[in-house]
Design goal:
Main location: membrane
Pfam families: SecE (PF00584)
Number of domains: 1
Transmembrane segments: 12-32
Largest sheet: none
GO cellular component, one term: membrane
Number of strands: 0
Structural class: mainly alpha
Helix content: over 70%
Shape: rod-shaped
GO molecular function, one term: protein transmembrane transporter activity
Distance between the termini: 64 Å
Radius of gyration: 20 Å
Amino acid sequence: MKHVSWPTRRQVVAYTVVVIGISLITAFYLGLLDYLFTAIVQRII
């Protein structure tokens, strides 16, 4: 069996912050697109 090399606490915190940050940016971007497309479609209809 291979030896498992676990990440340090600092690495886990850093990776967690990166994942949360990217998730928030993606959510904001998709929310903005949804708002814009909704506004455009309502003006057309």
